[in-house]
Amino acid sequence: MTIPIKQLKLHKLNMRLKDPFTTSFGTFQDKEFFITELIDDDGNRGYGESVAFSSPWYSEETVKTNLHVMEDFLIPILKENQISHPDQVSDLFHPIKRNNMAKSALEGAAWDLYAKREKLTLAAALGGERKQIDVGISIGIQPTVDDLIQTIQHFVDAGYKRIKIKIKPGWDVEVLREVRKHFPDTPIMADANSAYTIDDIEHLQQLDDLNLMMIEQPLEHDDIVDHAKLQAVMKTPICLDESIHSLEDTRKAYELGSCKIINIKIGRVGGLTEAKRIHDFCMDKGIDVWCGGMLEAGVGRAHNVALTTLAQFVLPGDTAGSSRYWERDIIKPEVVVENGLINVPDQPGIGYDIDEEAMEEFTEWTRVYHF
Ligand SMILES: O=C(O)CCC(=O)c1ccccc1C(=O)O
Ligand SMILES: [Mg+2]
């Protein structure tokens, strides 16, 4: 049955992180993003969240390009076409090249609306069965090694099931050696966010002694060829993040042997439909996957929780509790981690309500599009 979409609301929000978060390419303090709200004739509301950052450091998309592409191309496509299932949104957006985070912000709202209309949890609508998901945490580059050790201790005590440490040239082998000394048995991985080149092979090979779960995106964002060369000479599994935008990218990385693990981010791959396709391919080929994060507020976090219920998400992801980044989140209840687990909500759709008061506090403006 056609989903009778009546309105789309685009809310522009701005939220300050509790603490700055530093990666090899820069520091985040404020997060600006869009909440998309699709409303049907029966008054159901589906929500999505955009994940592009303000600057094109992680990928070429930004908050402003997301707005441009949504307003000038994607929203008109949604207005001109009828859909009965969110998979069709992905097909309708296909002629627009890339801009995956803009696509995902709208496709996510269509998935939530669809699930609510069908009275299914988003997890069930996607085919997920887990009732609880394992969570890990991503720790930014710290001022000193002591700060890092203390921060790790804090999150280990809180129950997080694996610790991801951001690295960059000058903050890598020595730091990780020290960390390993303090935490001999903790599942630890490193994320370089593309900070190295193939000339660093010998340097990176030193990480093989540290029993890391994996090293994430050591080389250039668009270089699956050199990642294959690196994987061939390292026993530590390589995980690709920035390099994977689609099922096609996944297939090519698999055929080249560029990685053994894939970090699936819904926004980076253009939405839940493509994320699920990548998941299914990885399941078929025996590639382990986990769900990455983009410093999301509650709506995006809820989408990540739902996706992680799929069977091949066998490794703890980066979807921490709301309080890891936010003083106050925009959903009720907030996402809570206990003993390293998040309970998957059992209400229809994303399964969390919007905290309207919090939304108002963080909303800069709202635009309404009538269908
Ligand atoms: O906790 C999160 O949401 C993920 C944190 C993280 O590692 C990250 C944060 C900003 C940009 C890129 C990345 C990444 O996964 O590479
Ligand atoms: Mg990463």
From TrEMBL:
Keywords assigned: Lyase, Magnesium, Menaquinone biosynthesis, Metal-binding
Gene Ontology molecular functions: magnesium ion binding; O-succinylbenzoate synthase activity; racemase and epimerase activity
Chain ranges of the Mandelate racemase/muconate lactonizing enzyme C-terminal domain: 145-237
Matches recorded under Gene3D superfamilies: Enolase-like C-terminal domain (3.20.20.120), Enolase-like, N-terminal domain (3.30.390.10)
Catalytic activity, EC: 4.2.1.113
Binding positions (Mg(2+)): 191, 216, 241
SMART domains listed in its UniProt record: MR_MLE (SM00922)
Reaction catalysis annotation: (1R,6R)-6-hydroxy-2-succinyl-cyclohexa-2,4-diene-1-carboxylate = 2-succinylbenzoate + H2O
Pathway terms, separated by semicolons: Quinol/quinone metabolism; menaquinone biosynthesis; Quinol/quinone metabolism; 1,4-dihydroxy-2-naphthoate biosynthesis; 1,4-dihydroxy-2-naphthoate from chorismate: step 4/7
Top-tier EC class: lyase
InterPro entries in alphabetical order: Enolase-like_C_sf, Enolase-like_N, Enolase_C-like, Mandelate_racemase_C, Mandelate_racemase_N_dom, MenC, OSBS/NAAAR
Biological process, per Gene Ontology: menaquinone biosynthetic process
Family: Belongs to the mandelate racemase/muconate lactonizing enzyme family. MenC type 2 subfamily.
Cited function: Converts 2-succinyl-6-hydroxy-2,4-cyclohexadiene-1-carboxylate (SHCHC) to 2-succinylbenzoate (OSB).
Protein known as: o-succinylbenzoate synthase
Organism: Oceanobacillus polygoni
